[in-house]
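Protocol check, entry for the methods section draft. Step 1: assemble the input record (protein sequence plus ligand SMILES). Step 2: submit for complex structure prediction. Step 3: store the structure tokens unaltered in the notebook. Ligand used here: zinc ion. Step 1 record:
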Amino acid sequence: MKLEKSELDEILAHFPEKINQAMVDYVTDVVLLSSRYIFTKRSGSGQQYGYCTHCKKTFKTPNLKHNENTSCLECQSICTVKASGRGRKYLQDRGYFVWYEKSLVNSIAITARGIEVYRDYSGDYKKVQTDFHVTAIYLFEPGKTLMIDRYYWNSSWRKRKSIISESNTSKKNIRCYYSRESIAEAVKGTLFQYSTWEKFDHNELLEFFDLAAKYPCIEYLSKLGLTNLIKDKLVGRKTYSAINWRGKTLDKVLKLPKQEIKAIRDSKISVSYFSLYLYHQSKKDGSNLDLKEAVHLSHLVEPFREDDLKVLQNYTTMRKIYSYIKKQYANKNKKHYYHAPQVIGTWKDYIADCKKLEMDITQESILFPTYLYKAHQDTIKKIKYKEDQELNELIAKRLKVLNSYSFEYKGFFIRPVISTKELIDEGNALSHCVGGYAKQYAKGGTDIFVIRKVSEPDKPFYTVEIRNNVIYQAYGFKNELPTKDVQAFIDAFTKAKLTKRSKGRKVAV
Ligand SMILES: [Zn+2]
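Step 3, stored output:
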């Protein structure tokens, strides 16, 4: 968005023009801490002298080697030794930091600047300056936030639609920092003094202050102990519309009666968006779980099973789902589930089978079989799946991507299923219902893989369903759970192929 000059002037009025001493010190001691060098030179007599770029002193040195680290004899800084005779065309250091200050215009607002700093040692190393380039400007006023930025130095400013962190975008290849001390100073006496910012550390807190400026409820959610809700919102997790961010009081914000708020305060139960969603769903179907039950159900189901849950909601209420899963997971058949959310997966598959077999699921005895595992094994036996050429073509297209997940480790390998025939054979050989997944798999709704022994590459062994990079289920013969060595293989596979590597480059000082 283009910015008119008058508007830009209005924004810039909130910011001091100069880079102050505290910022200069922060850059010297934190952002460019490793940008300290001792340049060595030899006199005619062979004595080596060093010049420290930090304290700017010259002194006699023992023989220092090019590129070794040493501490300056004068200022004790850790420095990198550079032989002054060597070329240093590329000796430049760069860093980025976010610095907070009060607004000069609005006494309850705060500001932040994203600043890139740069030192160039390619010329005279005794005259190196630190260049400061403000690349982003943030303004946090009550109910109103703003970011302007420029990608290239000295190009004109533009307004952003929303607050973003440069450390994740244009500066992601530079070491990024932000000063929490500058925040502590900036918030004093402003709207943000009691915002509980101290509890957070995400993307230089820019998105946190964005939320806190727009929604006063951030402060009281945090004080109620629900910082996890704020963290999930900051990292963009699904919020299930469980919260009314503009609510004026906690009961309006959480859409909960006052006694449930009191229960949260007293018991410190950890409420997630998903558990609030389940709570509200049970109000809708009239089965009225209390918050504690909804939280428990959220652990039995887990958010990534939401779609399975929706299938069941067509036939019954939240309370009945809750009781049934609890019972199936707790009873003597527990050995079939090492993780409660598997119950709902089995149940959903079982219901799909019942529908194919035209069984009447409106009957309670069919919808809630006493022994779910066994009832599912029975439906699996009765269903015959057919090959499908159209689906085979779709699967073949998907394999280009899915093959990159193939993996081998300690005598096992995993690869995607290659056709509907293989899926049906796999289901028949292992006596489980994976044959019913052909359409979903072909259309990209889910990913089905087979685990085989390297020594028996053609023999069905274990089948794995993966959704959104999460292992959804992994079953062997008759829905047996993975044995220890298979589980170890699955863990190694998860680590190698499904886990995103974290960046871990951001530092707060
Ligand atoms: Zn020094």
